[in-house]
Amino acid sequence: MTKNINKLLEKYESKNEKDLDEDINPVDKSKNKKELNQDSLQSINPVRNVKIKLDLKDKKILYQLELNARQSNSQIAKKVGLSKEVVNYRIKRLETFKVIKSYYPIIDLSKLGYINFRIYLRLMDATPKKEKEILEYLINNKESFYVSTLDGRFDLSIGVAVKEIHEFESFYNQFKDNFKQFIRKEQISIFTAVYHFNRNYLLDEKISRNPPAIIGKSPKEEFDNTDINILKILSKNSRIPLIDISKKLFIPERTIAFRIKKLEQKKIILCYKALLNLNSLGYEYFKLDIILKDTSRIKELLKYAESNPYITYIDQTIAGSDFEFDIEVKNKQHLLEIVNDLKIKFPEIREWSYFTLLSYDKLIYLPSI
After folding, report:
1. Residue 329: beta bridge partners?
2. What is the pTM of this model?
């Protein structure tokens, strides 16, 4: 099919959903619907950097992917009141225009015996070429499970997962052997727990928030190499079909399904998420650090964060701030309104600071083990 994608999208925005199949591919209607849909989706793959309008149906689909990115398109279709073909089309469209960047599982590394460190770095005297070299070094390092670019007090944030503290020392000493002269400031903390909240703000109506997925503070679970190999594959694409995992590992689909179910029951896999391009959603990502006069109301701060639809993560750390959270808001003014509300409700706040998370350059929730 060679129909111009821009004309297709214009029609798509204005047509009823029942007319979608005909607009996508006006061929012999006796053709299998599944084949028709796949042909039409492939036709939009080359399109890049085209502005996309998101409507309520798109947001409902994104919210379902936020709840469980591994659920099938048929399951999503039933929950959002659309046909499977329409959901197929919309998800492919969101992927093509990079609203959805990837899919990943949230894995509780503490259940695999890992300690998670966080490094903040402020760089100096680094040319753009050297900054790229530093970034690529961190991304390609087997111990890192996330690398993000920041704007503010620090330039980079790195998550490092190791089983022994000397492994972290070895990693960081090797990094400094290569790049110490470009480090102006560093801050190292140990994650004790990370709370992951759903993005309820995707939907306008107020809905109750599911309990957060909490990483950390967990006893080690039993696992074997097959479990690890499954986790490695899921960490690169949590929506990969069972049959594809089966082909990669030469293990029957039924066994793969059973293994994944056991990993979920043990809460090694907590949930499955979509990595979203927040700019395309009209939101900005900020990280807030709060210093308190005392810590007597930490539990109330946790409840406040749980009730606020814009707060997406809480980080509990050793050697970090007293209370840390990530928030996705419409703009800086929106951020300041929430901070002012916090200061009124919690006069224990002594000081606060923030920086912007510009992008996740690596996010896999699993080191290269």
Report:
1. 284
2. 0.85
